Amino acid sequence: MLPNILIINGNSSRLPLLDRSVHCIICSPPYYEKRDYQSGSGLGNEETPEEFISNLMDIFDEAHRVLRDDGQLFINIDDSRDGKHRVWRNIPHRLIDRMTRDYIWRFEDEFIWHKPNQIPQSQRCRFTRDYEPVFMLNKSKLAFFDWYGVLEPIKASTVERNRYAHKGRSGVDGYGMWRERKPGEQTGGDLKMRRAVWSINTSPYPGEHYAPFPEALVEPMIRAGSPEKCCSVCGKPYARILERSFDGEYNRKESLKQRKRMEGVMTGGIDKVTLGATQSVSWKFKGWRQDCDCPGSTPARSLVLDIFGGVGTTAMTAQRLGRIGISVDTGFQYCQQTRSRIGLDALDQWETGIIDDDSDVSDLPLFGG
After folding, report:
1. Across the strands, what pairs with 138?
2. In CATH, what number is assigned to the domain containing residue 28?
């Protein structure tokens, strides 16, 4: 039985994990020629961008081996400037092109991490760059994605604006007349699908790491890319049980095809209903159900892996959300900092009697969840 958090000091090109065992991988590789991470791998300090991308490919080939066929991979990687020619090298998209060239990886999505507290830049030839891209890749079009788990509140102004419907704009009334409608009608209640621009401040870190993940950035990726529960035998994600309720009247000219989509089946994280249709439907979460036929199965935690673990933010956030977090890093000092953050150093002191026997370790992240 795995612990809540597993720390591995090693090279991610040779992971001590079983084939197709991990549900979700979230990572941020060292950025090329930006800083010396002192990880011992030399990654990011290669002679050329091509060599850097080639080394990353070795690591992502290994990530492909350990990721489940229904798993998701999230990569946060920023670009760097060519000082001689004063141009961006376009490394993030060159990497994605290499990964998807032979259809080994599927390029599912790209979203933006907008950093409102970005330090202003002094250059006079371009705009201040206050964002980094995040890429979502997988191995199959049936990859798990829990859209319901990352719904976000709609603004109060939107709630007020959506009180009214009109044929040709919302198609609810069917008679071309303005009418007041119930709050939440055609919006899926008070929630909406998460957008592709996430405004999240960078987080200060007191330890020796230049660029730790903010937990607020990692959490939606974990919620969307890994199930809260999975089969203890085969690892297949449990399915959400969602109850649909239809609000208001539909356009009487609505096509049969659209109606069938509205009455479609939604299981697990695979949405078989057009997402636009959720604007006309309210959903209520009722629980979880096993989505495989494995005998003797019980609910288990899914596995979330960070192959550039740093100081363990991904693993700690995964543990807090009820998953098993695995953090891998070549830098021994970063693994030691992760131990301190989750309380292992304090636990060692408590067990060896260096501190008082009645010291409380129950609040340490190691024991959460």
Report:
1. 72, 106
2. 3.40.50.150
